Amino acid sequence: MRTRGFWVLFVLGLICGVGCALPPPATGPDTLGETNEKTSVSGNYPPDGYLEALPPVPSKGYWLESLAEDVYFFSNGVYNNMFVVTSEGVVITDPIRGSGERLKQAIAEVTGQPVKYMIYSHSHLDHIGDAHLFQGPVKIIAHNETRRLLERYRDPDRLLPQISFCKTYKMDLGGVEFRLIYPGEGHGKGNIIIYLPGKRVLMFVDVATPKSVPFKNFSTVDIYGQVVGLKKALSLDFDIYVAGHLFRPGKKEEMREVLDYYYASRKANAEAMQRVPLRETLQNSPSKDIERKMGDYFQAVAEECYRILKKEWKPRLMGFEAFARGHCDTWTTFHRTHKTP
Ligand SMILES: [Zn+2]
Predict the structure, then answer these.
(1) Ligand 1 geometric centre to CA of 17 (Å)
(2) pLDDT tens string 6-22
(3) CB distance 148 to 158 below 8 Å
(4) Residue 133: which residues within 8 A CB-CB, separation 6 or more?
(5) How far is the CA of 121 from the centre of ligand 1 (A)?
(6) Alpha-carbon gap, residue 222 to 19, rounded angstroms
(7) Which residues surround ligand 1, an ion (CB under 5 A)?
(8) pTM summary value
(9) In what order do the strands lie in the sheet with 250-251?
(10) What are the pLDDT digits (tens) for 240-255?
(11) How far is the CA of 275 from the centre of ligand 1 (A)?
């Protein structure tokens, strides 16, 4: 049941990335940066690679875990969010579609305070589709681009924000500081970092799920912007983060590990493009259709890139077999249109 729900939610998650707002900081594509960290993992692992099996979901339908004093992690097993209890009311983040009532129940477990604010990480339906359940005196905060997208969608389930901002937004409620940061377009327009500096906790959705490769084709409209966003998040001082997916929060080093995968896949792709000769691959393709010939070339590059990555990353991150070739292909598109380092 949960497995079926997982895939349904993931498929719905494909309704992702449309549009963006601010351009990413003006650094060239060859300044993305790389870490020198190399952690090879060997030994036995399941046929699909690294696996962190989902523990049984509690009968109430969710997990609730404390991340720091008055900061809570809520998860339905696949999607997650964070809420904060203050002396002046509760601040919630994404009202996950299908889990809004359970989120209310979770809040009632720890406080009698009313929900005062709701912060959208971004506009995607799967993450904020139950916003309508919090209609009333709750004030909604989101990025300007998220507001613009929601105005266009006219979805009554995704209420429009009353407060929106461009680059950063700061709020203090009951002595808790909330810092909202827009690192530019990556996973669609308006996807923000929600940062609680005093709690050393951060939320950044759909970009780096702990111990997992990124979702299909990096689930992005701007791979460069996505790397810039991750670098911005990692420049902040935090210990633990909420990724939007997985049944548990992540550690800072787990976010860095996913960024390392971005770099490794980019490098492997550049290497594969050197190794797979374009002209010969086109000549050797049995098809007379040039588009099909190009398709064969892209596939050969992705296969070579996958082969380069496999030894190190399959035992390290979940989802490698499902998505690594797609990541390689995304980088091919990037490398064909940007300066290749
Ligand atoms: Zn999304």
Answers:
(1) 6
(2) 443 333 333 333 333 33
(3) no
(4) 95, 100, 101, 104
(5) 9
(6) 10
(7) 16, 124, 206
(8) 0.86
(9) 168-173, 176-181, 193-196, 201-204, 240-242, 250-251
(10) 999 999 999 999 999 9
(11) 34
